[in-house]
Amino acid sequence: MESRRPEKPKAERHPNVIGASARPIYDKGTFVEKIKEMMPDSELMSRLKQTFPEGEFMLRENQENTKLYIILDGYVSQVKEGDEVNTNIGMQGPGDFIGLLSFQTGEPVFTSAKSSTKVTTLALDHDSFEVFLTRYPEISKTLQGLIFSNLAERYRKVVTLHVEVAELTKQLEAEKNHLKKTIKELERTRNALISQEKMATLGELTAGLAHEINNPASALLRSVDYLVTTLPDMAQRASALPDTGLVRFFFEMGLKREYADTAEQRVRMKELAKKYPYINRGKLRTMAEMDHEVLDRLKPFAEKAEKEEMLQLLLDSYQSGIFMNGIRLSTARIEYLVKSLKSYSRQSGKEPEVADVREGIRETLQILGNRLKDIKVKIDFPEIPPVTCFVGELNQVWTNLIINACDAMNDVGELYLSCGLSEDKNNVWFKVADNGPGVPDKIKKRIFDSSFTTKTASQDFGLGIGLAITQSIVEKHHGTIEILDRQGGGAEFVVALPADS
Amino acid sequence: MSDIYIICVEDEPQVLDVVIRDLAKLEEVFPIEIAHSADEARQLISEIKEEGNRIGLAICDHIMPGDKGVDLMIEMQKDPFTEHTRKVLLTGQAGLEETIEAVNKAKLNRYISKPWKPQQILEVAVDELTTYVIEHEKELLPFMAVLDQERIQEAIRSKGYV
Questions:
Q1: Domain residue ranges in chain B
Q2: Does domain B4-117 match CATH 3.40.50.2300?
Q3: Considering CB atoms only, which of A263, A281, A373 is closest to B43?
Q4: ∠ CA A140-A144-A150 to the nearest 5 degrees?
Q5: Chain-chain contact of B91 with A211 (C-beta, under 8 angstroms)
Q6: How far is A319 from chain B (nearest CA, A)?
Q7: How far is A352 from chain B (nearest CA, A)?
Q8: What are the CB-based long-range contacts (under 8 Å, 24+) for A229-232?
Q9: Do B114 and A259 touch (CB under 8 A)?
């Protein structure tokens, strides 16, 4: 700016507490004009003239002052100096007084005065003030009137300030209450969002789990159906066999069967079909699953077409073993899934518990198994101290981070999970990394914002606020979360939590 | 005469075991082959093709390691060799979008959700194979024993063979 002309002092305000008709009795402008007129002829006035360059302190707070300055030209700002911040009290201009209070009372200066422009004053000490009044009776009355009016103005200001302060306090109180309400509202909304997001993830998980459980459930149901029709007659059919122990043998072999490669299976089936052209494919398929030792025991019955019934019985027995084993495996699978789900989704109590966080991550992996079919999960979990935490909430963190990684990799890639103890041993850290495309630096800064998502509505059941919630859960645990670039490509989330000593 | 195959693609061995068992009755006429993944299925399909046989019915799980069931079916639909194969999706979970994709792009014929009812797979397989043989076979009598006799008789009448 070219000129630093300060704002003109505000026009006198007439607050409603004081009569609105109050008006300066004496006109400052005329007074200054008068002095300026008289100055060239007055040796005293010329002697009393004092000028200050711009930016100089005319008075400093708490210092002694023996002079009264009457501003003739220029502007002076009055400043109350605080410990940290200086407060501008106001601007004084031509016809105003500087140092009036300290001059009159002899007390230390109350507010500092600093010239805002070049300032010309008439500087009166007590002696010259007396002389001035007697020497120039024609203006002394005006001077006294102005002094009085100045003091009255100050008083008015004080009253106005009191009223303003009272009003401000009231307003502040109202705003404070409003803010309190808003914060409460926000907290409620946040909690609602958290539980909504949780339900959304749960919905997604349930869909995955449905598949995970429906597979073993199908195997279970159909296996039992088969056994219900096959087993009852088996004992009776076995009576035709030369050795009833064979039924048991084949059953046990069926129980122990291991799954072969399907292509290899086809080759074996073709070989068997050549060897036994009269045996149908259904039987050949079961035979193709047997190893040589078992097949040898079957030979006497396979080689003669007329022993077909016994062959069928032994194959049924073998097949029953297979289904029995299937039932065993399927049940174990369902049991394991349900157990994981139970501990995964356990509601956190009011009090945190001391827990091995690695367990929570392992459970989360179980629950997310469906999403991880094409993802190689590499786990490096050395021993770490436990963490005081809300296990259920932290599981939400792992779920979000792992789902996030899966999304980034389009469900095909590698997931790296690791943990460790910080050097100062105060924190345990957990890393969830992937070999996906990584996160551009520009996005890194915003990735934890609740309004930020790269997902479109159709991609995800969630609200796209997973990472914001993740961060808020981590912060609730007095931990930190950050996103880095994984060495070798991909993103790496690092969660640090205070370790239990 | 070339054989008409049934192929089952499913990554869970226990599920595959019971599917085959459910379809056992059909194997007298339609050889069954199995695959644990889409990749294995591709190999299987090319073997069946090389041997000069056909595939009448494909029963396929959706969620498997590697390519998904729906992807495999879309691929089969594009290949003239498997274009007319009847396609059945057997799954515990497929999203609406994937199912729509399967219907539109793979001309999916049926959808069976896991776990299925006793006889359900067999009934669906019989129904679909009946359609297949009526559309693609001249000689329908050999299929009477295991397929839908009423529909086959009806077809024989309308085609004018007796």
A1: 4-117
A2: yes
A3: A263
A4: 140
A5: yes
A6: 9
A7: 36
A8: A230/A316, A230/A319, A230/A320, A231/A320
A9: no
* Tens of pLDDT, residues A26-66: 678 888 888 888 888 888 888 889 999 999 999 999 999 99
Q: Is the dihedral of CA A78, A81, A82, A86 positive or negative?
A: positive
H-helix segments, A276-307: 281-288, 292-302
- The dihedral through the CA atoms of A233, A298, A282, A327 has a sign that is positive
Contact in structure between B70 and B101 (CB atoms under 8 Å)? yes
Segment A444-478, tens digit of pLDDT: 877 787 655 555 443 444 445 678 778 888 988 89
Distance to chain B for A184, nearest Cα, Å: 39
- For residue range A409-442, list pLDDT tens digits in order: 988 899 999 999 999 999 999 999 999 888 888 8
Asked if A113 and A89 count as a contact pair (C-beta separation under 8 A), the reply is no
Could B92 and A226 be called an inter-chain contact, meaning their C-beta atoms sit closer than 8 Å? no
Residue of chain A whose alpha carbon sits nearest to that of B16:
A219
Chain B residue with minimal CA distance to A280?
B28
Six-digit token pair at A374? 């094409």
pLDDT at A167: 92
**Angle of the A466-476 helix axis to the A391-408 helix axis, nearest 10:** 150
On whether ipTM exceeds 0.85, the answer is: no
Residue type, A483: I
